[in-house]
Each structure stands twice: as structure tokens, then as C-alpha cells.
Amino acid sequence: MLKAVIFDMDGVLINTEPLHFEVWKRVFQNRGIEVSYEVYKDCIGSTAKYLLELIRKNYGVDFGDDDDIRREAAQMKESIVKERGFPEISGVKEMLERLDSAGFQMAVASSSAEKYIQEAMKTLGIESFFRVLCSGENVKNPKPAPDVFLKAASEMNLRPEECLVIEDSTNGCLAAKNAGMKCIGFRNPDSGNQDLSTAALTIDKWEELDDELIGRLLHMDE
């Protein structure tokens, strides 16, 4: 029986994927590189470290593990969020309330920085729903490796098979599969054309995760 739901954050709980592409595009423009979306999209759901590796492979420029790039991106994102606010996704709070009423434990397992995850959840007023907040920056391997999902399950004292993941990206769905967890794919058009085929099912809006579907999830078979 499933006991917990582990959420990705960007593109699932907040609609930040377009913001991330805007930030990174500007960061690399400042360094003379015009990053195309076709290259960038392969890092959606993963970490800045993975993006830097994609830049090396596709543009032949090796920034190593450049703290200045990360710092500039973080400052730029912080400035944009301060100006515009966190981009919300309709129906998130109501969906969390339904899962909470059904007795699910909940966690966030995101590739974003821990401070950013905490700030986003607090600002949107949904932090109280989550028992655990995990950042991919605090595990060895980024998505599509399973590390961050396994860490979230461990911190809830649950086995992987007791956890359901909700993801909007190819990397995230693969990470859930690699963790031995069932997955629901959330189709967010702003996350690009992601391959969610490894998910057990997909939904297009949070209203679809209604009481009937939640009841089915509670008894989802292996």
C-alpha cells in the first residue's frame, strides 16, 4: 500500500521551468554562448551541474564546477522572483489538501537548492503539508539517478515501494523508476515536450487527482 507522495517542485508545484530557461540563457549569453532550448531541455528536472556538462558537450566550453555561474544564476532568479513572485500552478493547494485528508505523508524532492525550495513552499503557504524537503544538491547523483527520491523516502522511514512520485520531466520519471517507485506524470506544457512514458499514468491538471483517483492510489498494486 502506498503511504507517501513525493513531489518534484519545478513544473509540478510551481511553474518555474520557463523562468529557469530565461535565467540560464541570460547567464550564458553573458559568457558569449547562445544556448538553444533543444540543448537546455535535456537538463529539465536535473541540476546545474548536469547543465554545465551539457554545455561542455554541446558548445565545447568547460566551466568546470563554476561557483560564479551558480551564484549569478541564483541572484538573477532571486531578483526575478522578487519582482514577479513565484509562478503558481492552479489547483495545487486544493490537491495537497485532498492527499492530506486521505492520510498520505508528503515530501518534496527537487533538483533546486534547499534554500529556494524552503522559500517557495513558505511563500506559497504550503510548507505545512510536507514532512520532508530534499534538494538534489545534497545527494551524490542528480536525476535521472534515484538518489534524491531515495533520500526523501529514507527521511520518512519508508520503503521505496511505499512511495509515489509526481514528476513533469523525463529525468524525473526515470529517477522514480530507478528508485523503484510508482510515478504519475504531470503534463505541464511549459516544461516542454517531456517523455513521461515511464510513469504509471499521466494527468494534465491537478483537478484530475480527485478523491476517486486518490482512493485508487492508496491501493495501487506493484
Automatic annotation (TrEMBL):
It holds the Pfam family HAD_2. CDD domains: HAD_BPGM-like. Keywords: Carbohydrate metabolism, Magnesium, Metal-binding. Its cofactor is Mg(2+). Signal peptide: none annotated. GO terms for molecular function: catalytic activity; metal ion binding. InterPro entries: Beta-PGM-like (IPR051600), HAD-like_sf (IPR036412), HAD-SF_hydro_IA (IPR006439), HAD_2 (IPR041492), HAD_sf (IPR023214), PGP-like_dom2 (IPR023198). Belongs to the HAD-like hydrolase superfamily. CbbY/CbbZ/Gph/YieH family. NCBIfam families: HAD-SF-IA-v1 (TIGR01549), HAD-SF-IA-v3 (TIGR01509). This is Haloacid dehalogenase superfamily, subfamily IA, variant 3 with third motif having DD or ED/haloacid dehalogenase superfamily, subfamily IA, variant 1 with third motif having Dx(3-4)D or Dx(3-4)E. The lineage of its organism: Bacteria, Bacillati, Bacillota, Clostridia, Lachnospirales.
